[in-house]
C-alpha cells in the first residue's frame, strides 16, 4: 500500500495520520495518475479531490475523483439551478439524501442528481469511499470548489467567517443554493452581508487556491 494526501506542515513535512492509503496497482492509483492538476484536500474532514480529464462530448463538464473517509458528513445540503451532477462510486458506499429520500449508492453504481434536487451525502461504515464526479454546466463552481478547501488550509482565512460565507454564497448566485439552516435564511443573510463582504475585500473565489503551487505547499502529492 502507498500513502499520499497528507497535510504538510510549515516546514513541508507530512503531518502523521492525515493522508490515505491506496493500492499502487489499483483503480484509484490509475485515476490519480491521470489527474490534470494537484490533489486537494480539506485538512479536518477526511476528503480529497483531484481533477480528471473532462469528457470531450456533450455539455461543458468538470470531472474529478473524490476520496472520502468513513464518517464524512458531506457538504451542506444544496441544489443547483443549472448544473447536473453524476456520481460514479468506485469503492465503498455513500448514502445520498435527495429531497428527503435516502439513496444508498454502492461500488459499481452511478447516481445522477438533476437540477433543483436538494442533496448531500455521507459515508458510513468502515470503508473509504471514492467516486468519479461529473458536474455538467458547472459555471462558477469550477472556481469556488477549490476555494472551499483552500480557505480551510489557510491560517489567515476561514469559511466560517460570516462575511466570507456571504461572499461564497453570492458568487454562486443563479447556480447553487444552500438550503441549511433554511433557504430563506441563507438568501436573507447573503443579501445583507454580501455588499459588506465586498467592501471588506472578501470574494467567493481566489485565484491562489486554483493554482497547483498552493496545493503542493499544503498537501502531499501522489508520486508520478
Characterize this entry briefly:
The chain is built from 5 helices and 13 strands. The protein is of the alpha+beta class. Helix 3 (162-171) packs across helix 4.
What does this structure look like?
With 224 residues, the protein is of the alpha+beta class. 24% of the residues lie in helices and 29% in strands. It has five helices and 13 strands. It has helices spanning 27-33, 141-153, 162-171, 183-199, 212-218, and strands at 2-4, 20-22, 40-42, 47-52, 61-68, 78-80, 84-91, 93-98, 101-106, 110-113, 119-122, 129-136, 176-178. The chain has a six-stranded antiparallel β-sheet with strand order 3-4-5-12-7-10, with helices on both faces. Strands 9-8-11 form a three-stranded antiparallel β-sheet, with no helix packed on it. Strands 1-2 form a two-stranded antiparallel ribbon. Strand 3 (40-42) and strand 4 form a beta hairpin. Helix 3 crosses helix 4 (183-199). The protein is globular and about 50 Å long. The model has no long low-confidence stretch (mean pLDDT 90).
Residue windows where pLDDT falls under 50 for at least 5 positions = none
If helices are DSSP runs of H or I spanning 4 or more residues, what is the number of helices?
5
**Coarse morphology:** globular
Measured by DSSP, the beta-strand proportion falls in 25-35%
What order do the strands of the largest sheet run in, or round the barrel if closed?
Answer: 3-4-5-12-7-10
SSE string: EEHEEEEEEEEEEHHEHH
| Helix-residue proportion | 10-25%
Distance between the termini: 15 Å
Find the structural class using helix and strand composition: alpha+beta
Number of strands: 13
Rg, rounded, reads 17 Å
The largest pleated sheet is described as: 6 strands, antiparallel
* Mean pLDDT metric: 90
Amino acid at each position: 500500500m502507498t500513502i499520499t494526501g497528507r497535510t504538510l506542515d510549515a516546514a513541508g513535512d507530512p503531518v502523521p495520520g492525515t493522508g490515505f492509503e491506496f493500492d499502487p496497482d489499483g483503480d484509484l492509483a490509475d485515476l490519480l495518475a491521470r489527474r490534470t492538476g494537484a490533489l486537494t484536500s480539506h485538512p479536518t474532514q477526511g476528503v480529497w479531490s483531484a481533477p480528471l480529464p473532462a469528457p470531450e462530448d456533450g455539455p461543458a463538464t468538470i470531472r474529478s475523483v473524490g476520496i472520502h473517509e468513513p464518517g464524512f458528513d458531506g457538504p451542506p445540503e444544496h441544489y443547483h439551478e443549472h448544473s447536473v451532477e453524476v456520481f460514479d462510486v468506485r469503492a465503498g458506499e455513500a448514502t445520498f439524501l435527495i429531497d428527503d429520500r435516502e439513496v444508498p449508492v454502492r461500488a459499481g453504481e452511478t447516481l445522477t442528481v438533476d437540477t433543483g434536487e436538494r442533496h448531500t451525502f455521507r459515508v458510513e461504515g468502515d470503508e473509504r469511499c471514492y467516486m468519479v464526479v461529473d458536474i455538467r454546466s458547472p459555471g462558477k463552481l469550477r472556481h469556488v470548489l477549490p476555494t472551499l478547501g483552500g480557505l480551510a488550509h489557510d491560517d489567515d482565512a476561514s469559511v466560517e467567517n460570516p462575511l466570507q460565507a456571504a461572499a461564497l454564497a453570492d458568487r454562486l448566485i443563479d447556480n447553487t443554493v444552500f438550503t441549511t439552516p433554511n433557504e430563506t435564511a441563507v438568501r436573507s443573510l447573503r443579501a445583507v452581508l454580501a455588499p459588506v463582504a465586498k467592501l471588506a475585500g472578501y470574494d467567493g473565489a481566489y485565484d491562489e487556491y486554483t493554482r497547483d503551487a498552493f496545493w503542493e505547499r499544503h498537501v502531499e502529492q501522489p508520486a508520478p
